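Let's practice the habit of predicting before peeking. Look at the sequence and jot down your guess about where helices and strands might fall. Then scroll down.
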Amino acid sequence: MGFNCGIVGLPNVGKSTLFNALTATAAAEAANYPFCTIEPNIGRVAVPDDRLSVCARLAKSAKIVPTPLEFVDIAGLVRGASQGQGLGNQFLGHIREVDAIAQVLRCFADDNVIHVEGSVDPIRDAETVETELMLADMESLERREHTAQKRARGGERDAKAQLEIIEPALVALRDGRPARAAGIPADRQRELKALQLLTAKPILYIANVDEASAAAGNSESRRVADFAAQQGARSVVISAAIEAELAHLADAEERREYLAALGLGETGLDRIIRAGYGLLDLVTFFTVGPKESKAWTVTSGMKAPQAAGVIHTDFEKGFIRAETIAYADFVACGGEMGAKDAGRMRLEGADYVVQDGDVMHFRFNV
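Done guessing? Here is the structure:
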């Protein structure tokens, strides 16, 4: 599994330009007018991971298969979206389907690019989007609360359990706080997620700056970083214009030289992916062999049988053991055989928690 991230924000903040650059396609039309993206455009990119290439080289793999990351470019939101203004209903519906939200905030001035609010203020824009999401969540939860209360009075245990999630979430929303700030215990987060609340999703703020500010940011991007920290969220500074230029450079050395000239050590895509993995608490394990080396992404804390099930359901059903080599040992020993000879391969059982970078082979029987 990879993960999918919805790119959202007000019109004309650089969403589609960023989407096109990140996916290196022209699938989304980037234009200087609101609602140029009517349907959500979906693009898949390979998650860059140097470890996968190293594993493939040591195993002499014929094929490399990276983890896919899916970006969904969603139509621009305006004030009143929760009441159906603009493309509000479509916008909100598409957000419910993604794992995380990446909100693009305009942090550059350009008289040639219209701002729907008339001026550049990323914090105001972030609060506009958050308010619309909270209003939509509140309306959804109030309907669910009424139904659950009737069922709970009839003695249904499931309804009572659901109210234990709905009621504190509603308190937070009515207090002007997102559902993720409702204080739902960690062991009940799955129930909160099942409600598909927009403001329960983890959020990454992307400060879209001008090219000159890409390396160090600017005063507006620093405001975004402070705002994100207050929300318990993450932020990344990128220049969509630079990413668009990079998308046209096919040669890896050219890309490195271009980034170096701008004082950048990596692409915006890499920064967004790293922040996204941290946001969703994801780790990567590898399966390595002569046919292919492949990266797999799972939630941190996942145990070996469930990780095996990501590859194939039969692997989980008939799980016996997981042959496991830590990435550092795999490299230090020159691959699988060297790790075996050095006693660095471990046989792990059903209680083993997969670690980031594990090289794994699953034994199963069905």
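How did you do? The chain is about 40% helix and 20% strand.
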